Amino acid sequence: MTLESESGRVKREADKSYELSPDREGPDSAIEVIVTSGGIDKLEADKPLQIPEVWFWEKGQLSFYALGDEGYENILQSQILRNLDVALLMRCINLANHTQALAEFRQGIQS
Fold first, then answer.
1. Distance from C-alpha of 63 to C-alpha of 76, rounded to nearest angstrom
2. The model's pTM
3. Residue 11: phi, psi to the nearest 5?
4. C-alpha separations of 32 from 5, 42, 73, 79, 86 in Å
5. How far apart, in Å, are the Cα atoms of 51 and each of 13, 16, 31, 72?
6. With DSSP H G I counted as helix, E B as strand and the rest as coil, what are the percentages for the chain, rounded to 5?
7. Rounded to an integer, what distance in angstroms lies between the CA atom of residue 56 and that of residue 8?
8. Mind listing the pLDDT tens digit for each residue in 9-53?
9. How far apart are CA 13 and CA 94, in angstroms?
10. DSSP state at residue 35
11. 3-state SS of 60-95?
């Protein structure tokens, strides 16, 4: 999905974006997977898009950034998905068997 600011001056594509609130015009969250370039520098481009939360997956680590008055700041836990068990998510992401990872994650969030 191409994300565009209201002015139309900023356009970019997140690797994945999610609209969790039905009354919101744009995504509530975006996920960026960093393989070779980009990273935290992309947050400056995200400011005009007003995406409340951006997650980065880089070198086997997940980091969260929330949009505040001064721009994006690093946070330890998702503010949008406050009950997200980050340790469980990381453990499941790093499992080689995707079927096992989904089963373990589902079991973990149901308990």
1. 7
2. 0.77
3. -130, 135
4. 18, 9, 16, 17, 17
5. 12, 12, 11, 10
6. 30, 30, 40
7. 24
8. 545 567 788 888 888 777 888 888 887 766 666 777 767 778 899
9. 25
10. S
11. CEEEEEEEECCEEEEECCCCCCCCCCHHHHHHHHCC
